[in-house]
Design goal:
The protein has 313 residues and is α/β, with parallel strands linked by helices. The chain is built from twelve helices and five strands. Helices cover 43% and strands 7% of the residues.
Length: 313
């Protein structure tokens, strides 16, 4: 019995040390510009450091194309961009709920929808961005459990998810090479634009359909109802896409029509820039769906004017 007691004490001590090491290592990672700054952004949200009266949500087509600095200047409202790179709606909605849990609610939300926002996926983009936040995080596990390679032990056992140290040391080395601001953050109020040149080979671009996930789509109405409950003004947008590239999404009009029907049900606006003059100018894009920094600024200036009738203090 005495021997068993010492074995249990030893195992408990090992467990406590593992927990402390996990917390320390995870906290160090949260400060780094990992995965285009996503880890830092998750940490900013969870620590309640992202107060905004106007919050922008969406995928990379939000985070690199809607400049909160311009919105603040034009609308005189404190703004922050919560766009999640490479994401579909489900994880964007998780970020929104996490924001409300740890930060004061915004007065206004601008949510950019894409034709692929509800496309079915088997795994999330850059899944390791979530690793520093996994330990005993039931909400995160619930959001990720259906996706490929999600391992429940990563959420339970301290340090287990860091077992591939070659990978993590490589990611840390990459993060240290990123240019960051004086505060150590990779993004500026959640926003990051890129000075990239047009890089599309039309001969290799294939036409495809959005594999619409009807099981996830009810989350859109869940978002709308949450904003109604919280008295948050909600405006949806579809950012410009280069006009020639729009034909490569075969069911694009069908998807947008579905969005419009849902939003009409709740009398909510959808600002669709598919046929805006920006969408016809290749100089503003570096691929068919993403704008360079010139396009982002031009679009945000146009958006700010269109938002004025919705954004009333």
């Amino acid at each position: 019995m005495k021997q068993l007691k010492w074995v249990l004490i030893f195992l408990f001590t090992v467990f406590i040390v593992a927990v402390l090491l996990d917390i320390y290592y995870s906290n160090q990672l949260k400060k780094m510009a990992l995965f285009s700054g996503e880890v830092q952004e998750w940490n900013q949200i969870k620590e309640g450091k992202t107060k905004a009266d106007l919050a922008i949500f969406g995928s990379s087509r939000a985070f690199i194309q809607i400049n909160p600095e311009i919105l603040e200047k034009e609308l005189n409202v404190n703004s922050y961009n919560f766009g999640l790179n490479g994401s579909k709606f489900k994880m964007q909605f998780y970020r929104f709920n996490l924001y409300l849990k740890h930060n004061p609610k915004p007065k206004f939300v601008v949510w950019n929808l894409d034709t692929f926002s509800f496309s079915h996926i088997d795994e999330v983009f850059q899944p390791n961005q979530y690793v520093p936040f996994m330990l005993w995080n039931c909400d995160l596990y619930t959001s990720l459990k259906e996706y490929k390679d999600t391992n429940s032990w990563d959420f339970i056992l301290p340090l287990y998810r860091y077992r591939d140290q070659d990978y993590w040391q490589d990611q840390i080395a990459r993060a240290k090479k990123e240019e960051v601001h004086k505060d150590g953050l990779f993004r500026d109020e959640g926003f990051k634009s890129y000075d990239r040149k047009w890089n599309v080979n039309w001969s290799k671009l294939e036409k495809k359909k959005s594999n619409f996930d009807f099981k996830v789509y009810p989350l859109l109405e869940e978002l709308i109802k949450r904003c109604e409950k919280e008295n948050i003004k909600l405006v949806f947008t579809i950012a410009p896409e280069y006009i020639k590239g729009q034909d490569y999404m075969l069911n694009r009009k069908e998807v947008i029509s579905r969005y419009q029907q849902t939003l009409d049900k709740y009398n909510l606006p959808l600002l669709d820039y598919s046929y805006d003059s920006i969408s016809y100018q290749q100089k503003y894009f570096y691929n068919t769906t993403h704008m360079n920094f010139k396009g982002a600024d031009a679009f945000t200036k146009q958006l700010s004017q269109d938002l004025k009738k919705y954004i009333k203090q």
